[in-house]
């Protein structure tokens, strides 16, 4: 290599420093996982080389025999993990090792509790397996070179995990990555071939790449002809998903998930199936126990690895799964697709459309099985699933028309009848609990659950014992705009359009409504004139039993909550005036109808109160305070 060697000292990203300290303490009780994580990274590097090598065979540099090598040196007290995968450039080393957490960093550290078990789970969830090397190593030296004949030099990264690291350019004739762990005191247990082999077989037996070590056990005949550099493969080095299910243990399934999911926890559920016929493929799919921190970054893709005839093709094959199932991890191995399949081909492939439909069907079936499990453990699993992924699943109602009803059956909601024993209710359960004569599924949307529970629009529903869905997730407005009915029952917002309880009202109530509406006609017309800048109409309501007034959206207008959500997202929308409904039985309304004194101020007060009650913001808070103070002084 020509040119001057460049060596510089850099500092870790601030979060990385904190993570390094946590890593040692939180994961120390399960310290052998360092080897699993580093082997998993090496396997990923080989997969990436295979993928890029499909379009650029020169990347193999005449060395297509991919493998991972493990060695140890008792004198130097080191363990070395090396691979001949894709390798890294200088900038990639800085990006992937000097920096962690492309997104969600703050949320990650806010979630740390000080509880070693919980923190270990969070660290695994955050996908920072490389740092586990520092559990047993006082210093880590990483030497790497990016694949490609044009690569001029390698890069050496070294750190003691104290906050700084060095980078220098070095000569490295072969592509790939070598990691040397300089062990801490009292970690000599890992300077044993038997110990290392046991860890590999326990955690990494499923790795499709051969994991090799120098052979240490010899037969009598082999001893006579002993060759010092003879290798042996430690793992089975074949595709776990291609083996019969009867030969795979639950532990092996779990360890494979930890590899493909880059997770420290076992999965919540998994399904392994072979599909034969026009399309011939195998699927091994997992639902994690925890959501990743970037779950709601819809541009960030994860999870499904695509293989063709056991050959890795690509990570993150987004065409195989819809966005609302982006939390699923696993592999799909097809016997029908061409080996040179590209992302462009995937976009137009009918074969892929068929596989995608089958995968969706299988995953939804797996979630349905979770939801139907009636024993205590099963119920707890579905609660866990829905807590972690329920909001994402709601996106599917609008994205996957073919499975809309099926997805809707999996959704769970807090309602006005929820209790501590059954906090979440399915739509099927809601239908079973509907009152005689009820023809609609009622819901209210709000910024948060407390606001939904306290919405004035619920007053008459509580009085009549009618259950209402309380929707407070940001995705819920999207949900109800796409789920207009369920099992033939229309969904109806309690804050939109006129109140029509149908058969839940008797003729006497309807006659009383008409009578009181006529009696207050002059009042509503005058208030409409006074508030013409703020409201579309003013009318008498019977949805209120305690509050003096509320705001509702007209039948085909945008609701106040949706309007606020869109504005907060930076979207420019045309404001639609709400309808002010007044309670004819409330003393404030009755006084306003009888006295008409300070009429304009009282009308504005009623409007502003109604706006605040539904979670809106006053356009002129100072004017509201001024009016309120003046009216209070007049009353005193």
Automatic annotation (TrEMBL):
Keyword Transcription regulation: no
Keyword entries, A-Z: ATP-binding, Chaperone, Coiled coil, Cytoplasm, Nucleotide-binding, Stress response
This protein's record includes keyword Cytoplasm: yes
Region (A): 1-343
Record domain Histidine kinase/HSP90-like ATPase: where: 30-187
Chief localisation class: cytoplasm
Localization of this protein: Cytoplasm
Positions bound to ATP: 37, 41, 83, 88, 102-104, 125-130, 177, 343
Residue ranges the record marks as coiled coil: 501-533
Record-linked SMART domains: HATPase_c (SM00387)
MF (Gene Ontology): ATP binding; ATP hydrolysis activity; ATP-dependent protein folding chaperone; unfolded protein binding
Region of interest called C, as start-end residue ranges on this chain: 565-636
A GO CC term assigned to this protein in UniProt: cytoplasm
Family as reported in the entry's similarity comment: Belongs to the heat shock protein 90 family.
Biological function: Molecular chaperone. Has ATPase activity.
Assembly and interaction partners: Homodimer.
Protein name: Chaperone protein HtpG
Organism in which the protein naturally occurs: Nitrosomonas supralitoralis
Gene name tied to this protein: htpG
